[in-house]
Amino acid sequence: MNDTAYRIQQTALKLFTEYGFEGTSLSDIAKEVGIKTPSIYAHYASKEQLFLRLVEDVIVEEREKWIAQMDGERVEQLSAKERLRLLFDFYTDFKGMSIGQAFLKRVMLAPPRGLDERLRQHILQYEEKITDDLHALLRAASEEAGTPPVNLNRQVAVIYALIDGLLVEFQLYDAKTHRERVEAVWEWLWNGIMRGD
């Protein structure tokens, strides 16, 4: 990717995150990059193509960030409960989100009309990978604790719902209240896993 294409992407990412798909025009992006609007077409056929490319790139970036976090000796020495907590924290650390992660959250909560089906496919494919991680961690946690096997699909559905709910609460509450809620949700979730719910 050349420098201009990179600057277009970074600027588009910032503007789409801040103003949404509908609130950002190609001319807005071009103006901020310091180029004329037709120059964008040398790199992207349309605003939709640019937006979808950003979604794909951000999903890859977030996945690589998670894999990097789970790589290494320190993580291998953690219990399954601690590794599950790492995943929970990774997806509920809304304060520490990169701009790409913030963009992805916005896309998931309010997909642009006309792109929603294509976006849904990208996000569901990504979710399959997270689900595989969750299944492995939930099985390991259950085995380590000597509890009855958990209903994996049910637990995963609960975890996704809790993470999504915490994202909404992040927008509503001060940092202290939100942190308390994250801890309460984790405790409730872990107790449910230990009961085999």
Automatic annotation (TrEMBL):
Domain called HTH tetR-type: residue spans: 2-62
Keywords: DNA-binding, Transcription, Transcription regulation
Xref: InterPro entries: Homeodomain-like_sf (IPR009057), HTH-type_TetR-like_transc_reg (IPR050109), HTH_TetR (IPR001647), Tet_transcr_reg_TetR-rel_C_sf (IPR036271)
UniProt entry tagged with the keyword Cell inner membrane: no
GO molecular function: DNA-binding transcription factor activity; transcription cis-regulatory region binding
Domain of life: Bacteria
Endpoints of the signal sequence: none
DNA-binding region extent: 25-44
Keyword Transcription assigned: yes
PANTHER family with a match to the protein in the record: HTH-TYPE TRANSCRIPTIONAL REGULATOR RUTR, MYCOFACTOCIN BIOSYNTHESIS TRANSCRIPTIONAL REGULATOR MFTR-RELATED
Name this polypeptide is given: TetR family transcriptional regulator
The organism of origin for this protein: Paenibacillus cellulosilyticus
Lineage: Bacteria, Bacillati, Bacillota, Bacilli, Bacillales
